[in-house]
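Appendix B: complex inputs.
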Amino acid sequence: MRRRTALKMAAAAALIGSFAIGTAEAAQTIKIGAVAPKTGPLAGGSTVTHWPNIELWAAQVNARGGIKLKDGMAKVEIVEYDDQTNPGETIKAVQRLATQDKVDFIIAPYGTGLNLAAAPIFAKYGYPHIAVSAITDQIPELSKRFPNMFFTLGSTSAFAQSVADILSKMNKDGKMGNKVAMVNVADAFGIELAAAARPIFEKAGLEIVYDKSYPLGTQDLSPVVKGAKATKPDAFVAWSYPPDTFGLTKQSIIQDLDVKAFYTAVATCFPAYGGAFGKAIEGNLGAGGVNPDSSEFMAYQKAHKETTGKDADFWASATTYASLQILEQAIVSVGAPDRKAVIDHLKKGTFKTVLGDIKFNKNNNNEKFWTVGQWQNGVFQGVASTGRPGAKEVQLKAGWK
Amino acid sequence: MDILVTGLLLGGTYALIAMGLNLQYGVARIMNLANGEMLVAGAFAAFWFFTAGQVSPLLSIFLVAPLTFALNWIIYRYLLLPLVKRAKNRGQLEVDSILATFGLSFVFVGIMMAVFGGDYFTYSYLAEPFVIMGDIYALNRIVAFIMAVTICGLLYLWLGKTRTGMAVRAVSVNPEAAGLVGIDVLKMSAFAFALGGAVTAVGGSLISTFLTMDASIGVIFTMKALIIVIMGGVGEVRGTIVAALILGLAETWVASVIDPGLTLAAAYLMFILVLLFRPQGLFGRQSS
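Resulting structure:
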């Protein structure tokens, strides 16, 4: 409600402002649609990672006068829909944005499943679809089927590979054994990652001593942690979603799960994770990462906090923001809200973003992304990436105290 | 032994989730689908008190309980009472109340989103190891279990030994007859509904010490509560406790011995078995 009021007030202020300046300036606006969960299972994640960045970007663009087009500046206006984390609703909302609201552009939905569900609709109406939180190994197939679809956050096997690389390096350096306890949430994301990880871990010389899944929304994860602990692993890897990332960590602290490497996937990079556990999670590994020391990221982090009142996470927040920067730069280069020309430009341009330069390859994929981060001295530092500079050394996990 | 204790602790959690709904459905005949949201509201309150004022959830429940009691009484009085008066029979009331509370659950989610935002919230309270016979358990779960036992015990005694409790039970068994012997059925129903809401919110406060939640997670708890109430028998405190413990033990046993992936399957299997062989619930009476 607060956000909507703020938007309304901003819109009102902009309106009054434009009247005050006079009618000489044509009131051009670019309408941009946004669909993502505000309720449902993924709402907790999208409230941290997705929505604040849209708010931030729109505020920044309008503060500097709008997006520069050939015939003057155009302010952006955001039309928001809640898809209730329901793919059917996502599809309906995208369709509505295209046909009823007649928006100029649509920001990609949140979550792998919801992005894939909406992809045919984006393609049907010719909207560029710069997906962020869609991690999949199907990128070549998808971009062939939907030439308007772009990927920024990476692929499943790259994430599994990075974890395997880190663990096997620690093993080869003699810092720990090769026994890995692996668990996953029984949901598309966790199942796909666990399936990708099994052969990759084996190839890296790691032995999986515990391999179990648990349903989404499990209230008591202590049997999982106890089961893993009983196999005396050297490393613990969980392909987890936010509630279970928190739950597994809590249980591991209580059970004092003694491992040299502790990895949980989504939400490990959330500020709330650091806030909830403080010093206990020093050395925890997680999906994502950024280079928190780069000046671009620091400026972004500051603006994020000032505009939205929330802290950005240390992974997909910046990527979400980068996807909007990419869209904006493509529109500026084309000089008009021309969707087809923007898609063509996305394929060949290089874009300056908070993450550094981004260029899409022939599969519409951003090949340089962060894969693993680690909590070091209260900051979630990127420790592995596929070609982003600034990765820190991985440290051994030394207990939970 | 380990499985037994872990299972009992989980069962205690489930009892906290389901006890309030049992009162609301059993006595006031309101199948409250906004039950989970009330639980999340209690959890939010505990979270807020703890992070803003370092107030222990064990203390803040004494504020949460009367507040949610009043809130639920208002909900019953102004939202549900018209439905009760309009309903010609029990079936119609159930359908109407399911629709009304389903809508109410969205209102609650919206309010909580507006007030707290949609982030995950979690905090560390008593997240310390506690050793029972050589095995480690979380202290906050043990505390929640003890509170669950206390709440259930008090409810059981109150329903069984006091005059008001007896009136509540009478309404639960037969509202018409209860009215004939001079019990104010509507007042008793409102009281039971409000009490159920307060118990649920207190449960939420206690559960928030070890579960991570967000504004729209309530429906998960509503589903669990429904299963437990129906398994145990509508309007039966004992039934709810036994069903919650059975469910907790079964899930923990399956997770430890077979596979954590099958816990949900185990829970629903038990639910189906009860429905097949004892449709009135473990402790329920044959419906007249």
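Chain B touches chain A at residues 2-3, 6, 9-10, 13-14, 109, 113-114, 117-124, 127-129, 136-138, 141, 210-217, 220, 224, 248, 251-252, 255-256, 259-261, 263-264 (CB under 8 Å).
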